[in-house]
UniProtKB/TrEMBL annotation:
Protein name: Peptidyl-prolyl cis-trans isomerase
Family according to the record: Belongs to the FKBP-type PPIase family.
Gene source species: Oceanisphaera ostreae
Gene3D superfamilies documented for this protein: 3.10.50.40
InterPro entries: PPIase_dom_sf, PPIase_FKBP_dom
Keywords linked to the UniProt accession: Chaperone, Cytoplasm, Isomerase, Rotamase
Length: 160
């Protein structure tokens, strides 16, 4: 079966930067699953997956615009340290989670004081050209429930 809208795709990936350094991978773990055509994946990955067959491996390069966007200098915000989640002691460069009006968000600490911290709200991969090595592990037709919910269920997908 080929990857098309309303199919559930399970895949493995290795993410590298332009220098070839591995930034993330799920190889040797369970494959990720998503519902194709429902904007649950980076648009560049979904576009590249369209028409691929189960078992197919390929690489793609995404510009910052196709990935997580360009870094924006106006995305530094000051927040109370007590709102940071993920550690007890904080240092610049660490990742934290904060709750925003748009939901939970991962941030990078730019500067930390005793009571306040400057956090970078840019995605950690913003501004980077990203190289994905992708392997389509399986493709199946989505269930009516998955289509209604807008995401894949089961292994690698949403559990409910």
């Amino acid at each position: 079966m080929q990857v098309a809208d309303n199919t559930v795709v399970q895949f493995n990936y290795t993410l590298k930067n332009e220098d070839g350094d591995t930034l993330d991978t799920n190889v040797d773990n369970a494959p990720l699953a998503y519902l194709h055509g429902h904007k649950g994946m980076l648009e560049g990955i979904e576009n590249a997956m369209t028409g691929k067959d189960e078992g197919e491996s390929f690489s793609i390069t995404l510009t910052p615009e196709e990935g997580y966007g360009e870094r924006k200098d106006d995305m530094i915000q000051r927040v109370p340290v007590k709102h940071l989640q993920g550690a007890k002691k904080w240092k610049a460069g660490m990742m934290a989670t904060v709750h925003t009006e748009q939901g939970e968000r991962q941030v990078t600490l730019a500067k930390v004081g005793k009571f306040m911290a400057d956090v970078d709200m840019n995605h950690p991969l913003a501004g980077l050209t990203l190289i994905f090595d992708l392997e389509v592990v399986s493709v199946r037709a989505a269930t009516e429930e998955e289509i209604a919910h807008g995401h894949a269920h089961g292994e690698g997908g949403h559990q409910h």
